[in-house]
Amino acid sequence: MASSDGVTITFHMTLKPEAVDMFVQAAPMLLEGTTTFPGFRSIRIVQHKDDPTKVLFVERWESEEAYRKYIAWRTEQGAMDGMAQMVTAMETHVWPNVLVEA
Asked: What DSSP letter does each residue of 37-85 carry, written as one string?
């Protein structure tokens, strides 16, 4: 097992059906501030092809601490409250080890 020099964060959420279009339109704006936040490496936001209410964020950060600081910053800005109003469920996982990468 190879250890990485960062962490992968997955954040899965289920949007309220009436919030799907609003989220899709706002998604590019979610990146404002994210890409320049200390410790940020990359992000990919994907939507399920058969169920548009299912959205997955796959993020790379230098450390879990950097990610937690980012979430605290977003929370202070009120962005997390806005997100909470659009979702019915959310789940976050931290993946610290890369087993294989190509």
From this structure: STTEEEEEEEE-SS-TTEEEEEEEES-HHHHHHHHHHHHHHTHHHHHHH
In degrees, rounded to 5, the angle at the alpha carbon of residue 92 between the alpha carbons of residues 87 and 98 is 145
pTM above 0.85, yes or no: yes
Only one residue has tokens 């960062």, namely: 6
pLDDT tens profile 39-52: 999 999 999 999 99
Task: Kindly state the helix (H) or strand (E) to which residue 79 belongs, with its residue range.
Answer: helix 79-86
Q: How many CB atoms lie within 10 A of CB 59?
A: 19
